[in-house]
Description:
With 561 residues, the protein is of the alpha+beta class.
Amino acid sequence: xxxxxxxxxxxxxxxxxxxxxxxxxxxxxxxxxxxxxxxxxxxxxxxxxxxxxxxxxxxxxxxxxxxxxxxxxxxxxxxxxxxxxxxxxxxxxxxxxxxxxxxxxxxxxxxxxxxxxxxxxxxxxxxxxxxxxxxxxxxxxxxxxxxxxxxxxxxxxxxxxxxxxxxxxxxxxxxxxxxxxxxxxxxxxxxxxxxxxxxxxxxxxxxxxxxxxxxxxxxxxxxxxxxxxxxxxxxxxxxxxxxxxxxxxxxxxxxxxxxxxxxxxxxxxxxxxxxxxxxxxxxxxxxxxxxxxxxxxxxxxxxxxxxxxxxxxxxxxxxxxxxxxxxxxxxxxxxxxxxxxxxxxxxxxxxxxxxxxxxxxxxxxxxxxxxxxxxxxxxxxxxxxxxxxxxxxxxxxxxxxxxxxxxxxxxxxxxxxxxxxxxxxxxxxxxxxxxxxxxxxxxxxxxxxxxxxxxxxxxxxxxxxxxxxxxxxxxxxxxxxxxxxxxxxxxxxxxxxxxxxxxxxxxxxxxxxxxxxxxxxxxxxxxxxxxxxxxxxxxxxxxxxxxxxxxxxxxxxxxxx
Length: 561
C-alpha cells in the first residue's frame, strides 16, 4: 500500500487513528484523535512515549491489540511497509471512543450521579456532579476496580457488586459521612448476544427531600401541640410568653437543640393579635448561602439565571401582617444579618433585582442554640442586630434541668404514638426509671424519638428495663446513621465470638432469640468498656447508658464483670 493511500485512509477514518514510524515518532493524526486527548487530558501527540501503550496478542498476521495503561481505551495496531522499504505502524482506536465523547457530553447534562462500569466492576466513567456530592473525587475511582475501593475503605457493600452478582436491577440508599444521602439505581447492560457487559449506576441526592419531609412532618405535628410541662421554670416561661404575645415586641428564644423553641414561638403567635395572619417558619441554617437573600427578600423576574419568570415573593413579604419565626438565626451570614437589620428597622424591603421599596408589617420571633457568649461575639453575630432582636429574651432550660417534665412528656408521646400506630404499648416501672435518669442530650426531640421507637419496635405491648436500654442505644429514627443502608437485608443468624487476628468481633451464623442475642452483645460491649476505662461511670458514658443500669445488671446477675 503506497503512502498516499495510507495517509488518505487515516485522515478520513471515523475512528481515532495515527501513524508512527519505527522510532515512535508520530507522522500523522486524524481529527478524531482529539477525543483521545480529551479523555487523557493531554496535549498534541508527537511521540509514542507520550502514551503508555501496552501491546497485547496478535489478532491476525501483523495486526496486534493494544491499550493505554490504566484506562479502558484500546484498539488495534497494523504493521505496514511502504514500497520504498520504510516501516510504519497504524494505530486505530476502537470506534466506540468517538461515541464515548457524545456519551460524556450527555452525562454532564444529567443532574444526578452517573457511573458506568464494566462486567468486571471497573469504574469506566463518572460525571462531574459526583465531585460535589460524593465524599471522594472522580480521579480517585475512575479506572479502579470496585473491589479495590472496598479494600481501601472508600465504599462498603457496594451496589455495583450486587448487580454483577444478580445481573438485574438493584436499588440502594447510601448515607455518606458528609451527610449526603444518595438513592441509587443500578441497571445491567447486555450485548447483542445477551452477554453481560456491565451496567449504569445513577444516584439521586435525596438529602434535601428527607429534610423537607421531616420539617413538614415536624411542622404539621407541632402546629397543634401544647408545650407539655409541669415544672416551675417552664410555668414561668409560658406565663411570660403569654404576657408578651399581645404586643408586637420581638421575642428571642435561646436553648439547646430539641427543647421546643418553635412550639413556644407558635404559642406567641396563637395568643397574639396576629393569630389570623400567617406564621412563617424558616431554618436559617438550612438555606444555601447563595439563595438566602432571594429567600428572604424575594426577586423580580429575570433577576438571575434560573429565576421564576414571574418573580417570587420572599419570606418577609409572605409573612406580611403576621409573624416570621427565624430558627437558628445565629447561622445567618454576617452580610445577610446587615441586610436583615435594615429591613427590620425600616419596615421595608427591596426584592433582588428590583428598585421598588415594599412596606412590610411583620412581628419577628427568633431562636438559636448558640450561647449568650457566642451571640455577643461580633465575629459570629452583629451586635446591632442582636440588641435589635433581643427585646424579650426567653431562655428555655434543657430537659435534664427540669426532670419533673420528663414523665408528663413520656405519657403524652406514648399516647400519641399508640394512637398513630394503633398499638397499646406501656412501660414497666423499671423502664420509666431508666427514662427518668437519662440525661437527654437531645432534649424533647430525642425523648419523642425514643418513645416512637418503643411503640414501633417493641415486640410485645410491655417495654421493660432491658428493652428500654436497647431503645436508648439505637440512635435516632429521624436520622440516617452509618455509612449506608440497603433495602435488601440478609437473614439474622446465631451470634458467636471470633478472636482471629487478636481482634474480637461478632459473627452471625444461625438463628436465635433476638433478646438473647442482644444480651450477649450487651455483655461483651459493657465488659470491654469497663476494662478500657477502669470504672463504671466512664464505661456507661462511652456506651450511652446510665451507670445505674450497669450496677443493676451486675446486682441481678444479668452481667458478669
